[in-house]
Predict the 3D structure of the following.
Amino acid sequence: MKQTQIVYPIASAIPAVNSATTTPAVKTFAALTAAAAEPHMHLLRDGEVVLYRRQRSRVWQCRYKLTNGAWQRQSTHKTALEHAVRVACDMYDEARFRQRLGLAAVAAKTFADIAAITVVELRNDLAAGTGKKIYADYIQVIEKYFIPFFGDRHLQNLKHTDIADFERWRNAKMGRLPKSSTLMNIASAFSRVCTTALERGYVSERVPLPKMSRRGAKGATRPAFAPEEIAQLRVFMQQWEQGGKTDIDRLNRPLMCDYVNFLLLTGMRHGTEAHNIKWKHCEWYESEGVRYLRVWVSGKTGGRYLIAKHEAVAVLARLHAAQKDIAALALDAVLGRVNHYIFRNAACMRPKRFNGIFTRLVRDAGLMTNTVGETRTLYSLRHTYATAELLAGTDIHTLAKQMGTSVRMLEQHYSKLTATMAAGKLA
C-alpha cells in the first residue's frame, strides 16, 4: 500500500500574503510557526558563549566563560538575534583580552556594588539552609561598616593605608577596640567580598588585594557563678518568679527561671542554641539500663547531640505542665514528637530574647557582678557549667564535644584550672 507523506510547512516556506487579504487565522498560524522555529538558546564559541532569553522578555541575555572557569552574565540589550550574537562575542573577546592583561574581566564595579551582591548571596544561602549561621554576622559587618566606608571606591585600588584608615574609623564607630573574635568575623566578611569579586571577574586574580587585621585583644572569659552563688540564685528564684509588675513580666519570670536552670544543666549556648530548641529535639537515650535525656542543638558550630543532667527532666516537666496546648499530653508523648518551641510561657508565647529579664534577675538577687566587679551575662551560665565539669574531672575532649567547642578553646579559657584539677597529684 502506498503511504502518503505529510509535509509540514516552515515559516520560510510560507509565501508572503497581502495584509489586506490575509485572514486572522493565517496570521496566527504564521506567527506561531515562526516562533517555534526560533530556538530560545544559542551556543557560540564552542559553548563558551551562551545566548538566551528570559521569560516575558524579548532582549537576549548572554553568559560567557572566563579563564578561571567562572561564568559572567550580561545583557546584550538587543532584541534581534544577529545583533545580540555580535555583542555577545565582543563581550567575550574583551573579557578574555582584559584577563590576559591582568585586568578585571569586566568594567570595574564599585565596592558597594560588589558588597551588595555578596549580601544577596549570603542571604540566599541562609534562606536555602546551605549557609552558616555566621553569615548573618558577615551581612551585618558589610552593611554597617564596609559599605558606608568604602562606598564608591574600587576594590582593586585599595591599599594597606586605606585598610588602616578603615580600621581607625571602625574603632571610633564601635567606641572600643574590638576583640580577636570580632576581628576574625570582620576579616572573614572582607574575604567573602573579595571572593565574590574574583569569582565574578570584577577583579583579576593577578591583582593583590589587601587583608584586614585579625589581631586584637584577647577576649576576656565571662565571669562564672561560684557554687554557693548558684545555690543562692536558685533559692532566690523561687520567690522572684512569683512577682512582676506587668502581665507579661508575671508570665515570663517563671520561664526565665526554667531557662536559667536548663542552661546550667546542659552547658548549651544561650540564644543561638537554647532559644530554638523544640520538644521534638529532646528524646530519651538508653545505655546499659540507664535512661538519659538527649537534646539536639544547632548553633555556632553546627548541629550536635548533648546529654543533659538528670535534673533537667524536672525542668522540662515544669515547662510542659505550664504550656496549655500540650499539658494534657503525657510528657513522653511530647518528647521527640511535638513541633513547638520549649521555651514558651504559660500563654504559649515565646520571648524574642532573655537578656533583659536575666539582667533584672541577677540584679535583684544581688549577683550582678563578681568579686572583681565583672558584669555577669547569660553566657556566664555556660562558663559556670564548663568550670564545674572541669573541676569535677570531666575529660576535656568529652566536654568539648558536649559543648560544641574545641579542646584548644577550652584550654585557652580554662587553663587556670589545670593546676586545680590536678591538685590530688600535685599536693
Q: What stands out?
A: Residues 111-199 form one domain. The first strand starts at residue 41 and ends at 44.
